[in-house]
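#struct-help
A.M.: can someone run this one for me? Single chain, 175 residues.
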Amino acid sequence: MNKKILSSLSAAAATAVMAGVSAMNAFAEDAAQASSNGQGTAQNPGAMGLGGMFIPLIIMFALLYFIAIRPQKKRDKELKEMQQSLQVGDEIVTGGGIVGIVVSVGEDTVVIETGGAKHKLRIKNWAITENVTAMERIKEAKASGKKASGVETAAIVDDTAEEKKAKKKKDDEEE
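D.P.: on it. Structure tokens below:
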């Protein structure tokens, strides 16, 4: 899916560049004709130099980067972090829509249990698109007023982590 998005973005960018170059050439030709007819100024007969041609292209690429490329990279980074931070017992959803509970986590594969008969499937990490348990932890953390974001929240909300914090706070108060 990501390859399709990237290819369509690159095709759109190439089309935009070609349209921009064609438009710039048309304006340059009009300016050249105007200057040859005596309508241009004596100091700047072309009325549009190389800088004037490249500024709109640079602006288009900057807009493309901030509107399409940067948010996609951020989503990809968050997805990769989620896939690497899977824990046993997490409920996940694969790209194909299979829902299961993580039984074991390997280097690049995960074993999940699905259905009432507890069928086990071994899947690749890249196939996991959503960690339902982590999303529930994030919602609980937001509801309780804790400030944390993304995958880090899943580790912060763990009962063991909360117990450690409470114990540390209690020890600090005693001293």
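A.M.: thanks! Confidence is low (pLDDT under 50) at residues 149-161.
D.P.: also worth noting: The beta strands are 91-94, 99-105, 109-114, 119-124, 128-131.
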